[in-house]
Amino acid sequence: MDRRAAFFLVAAAACIALVPVANEHAWVAWTVASVYVVLALGSWLDARSHRRL
Amino acid sequence: MEYALIFVIVVALGFDYVNGFHDAANSIATVVSTRVLAPRTAVIWAAFFNFVAFLVFGDHVATTIAKDVVDQDVLSIGVIFAGLVGAIVWDLITFYLGLPTSSSHALVGGMAGAAVAKAGFDVLIGDGLRTIGTFIVLSPLIGLALGLIFTLVIFWVFHRNRNVERLNRGFRHGQLASAAAFSLGHGANDAQKTMGIILALLIATGHAGADATTPLWVVLAAHTAIALGTLTGGWRIVKTMGSRITRLQPVGGVAAESAAAVTLFATSAAGIPVSTTHTITGGIVGVGAARRLSAVRWGVASRVVWAWIFTIPGAFGVSFLSFWLVDVFS
Fold first, then answer.
1. Interchain pair B144, A11: CB under 8 A
2. Residue B59's closest CA among B206, B179, B223, B178?
3. How near does any CA of chain A get to the CA of B40, in Å?
4. Domain count, chain B
5. Do the chains contact at B130 and A22, CB–CB below 8 Å?
6. Cα dihedral sign for B123, B108, B186, B203?
7. Would the pLDDT of B326 be above 90?
8. Is B121 exposed, middle or buried (CB count within 10 Å of its CB: 0-12, 13-18, 19+)?
9. Is the minimum CB–CB distance between B145 and chain A shorter than 8 Å?
10. Closest to A15 (Cβ–Cβ): which among B130, B138, B149?
């Protein structure tokens, strides 16, 4: 798997792990986690397209 | 009593001065390394925006430090002095060990440690500490994501531009704005931490009511101290920051500083104390990660994670001992 995508997924997991303790800022943790999931997907697609070239 | 109060206020302002001295490098490193400004001009630029931050942002972070870390009833001159000593000593220890520590986290850990030494764990305010703890991890991650996104957007917008030299010249000047924005965020978030300490001190000694907002003289003194720190020391340690984590071009400098500035603006407006060093580190890592992960020097970035883990417990321990010593000798 693309190492950068894996890194972004770990970052997303870290954000989700913070949700239970984030009080009224849980939405921030969810939003940042969502951004990292999108970045992981983008990075994976980018790496896949480079492999095909 | 009055002399003790004045002494601790001076120590708090000294802490603020050292913060400016140490952290100025974060905001001007890229401007200096790309030779947009001479070092002396760059520190004046950063110091000015550090100072005027009080005109833009309120005192939400100060209120959080003063009222949402420990129960106000337990605060005294001794507790706040021990908290400051803990933060300063921890900063010195980590400076010696080469850990990229956060003065902000050390201050929170210090306050908590001294208060617990006086009255036990019940005095800690769980909600406030949970929010601060959450953003210790979230703020660099937000900076990283924004740094990466800003870099991708810039590349996407300018990818048809073949005149690289002209583009770089444009972004070199763009760094003036991004460095100013970051300095504004730095002044807002970090000076407010000292404002919070002094406000807590004034409340604890009966010089301000429990619901008081930060007096203007405290606001001006804190912003003056951080600006003077930036003015006198920043350029000495500016050399490494621009290339320590990943090699930055002007375009990367604009993206990293803008990412950190946006994060600091949002957290300052929400009253959440965060580390400016960790936020800009996240932004710089994000710029490097936009190219490839191997462009990032992970050894430096991982030391930030160690600083997350150790700073609050470390400062907590030192302040706990400091309060015990203050108590014995007083």
1. yes
2. B223
3. 37
4. 1
5. yes
6. positive
7. no
8. exposed
9. yes
10. B138
The rounded mean pLDDT for chain B is 84
Q: Does B130 touch chain A (CB under 8 A)?
A: yes
Q: Any CB–CB contact under 8 A between B144 and chain A?
A: yes
Place of tokens 């490193």: B29
Identify whether the C-beta of residue B57 lies closer than 8 Å to the C-beta of residue B84.
no
Band of residue B236 on the pLDDT scale cut at 50, 70, 90: low
Phi, psi angles (nearest 5°) of residue B70: -130, 160
Specify the pTM: 0.86
If you measure CA to CA, which chain A residue comes closest to B293? A4
Chain B residue numbers touching A24 (CB-CB < 8 A): 131
Q: How far apart are CA B250 and CA B314, in angstroms?
A: 37
Six token digits for residue B193: 């931490």
Hey, where are the domains in chain A?
A: 3-52
Q: How many Cα neighbours within 13 Å face the side chain of B275?
A: 31
Q: How far apart are CA B199 and CA B61, in angstroms?
A: 11
Alpha-carbon gap: B138 to the closest alpha carbon of chain A (Å): 7
Sequence-distant (≥ 6) Cβ neighbours of residue B227 within 8 angstroms: B20, B47, B48, B50, B51, B187
Local structure of B124: helix, strand or coil: strand
Q: For chain A, say whether B295 makes contact (Cβ under 8 Å).
A: no
| Structural domain of B300 | 2-329
Give, in order, the Cα–Cα distances in Å from B195 to each of B64, B130, B200, B216, B322.
Answer: 10, 21, 9, 10, 22
pLDDT tens string B186-225? 888 888 888 999 998 998 888 888 788 889 999 999 989 9
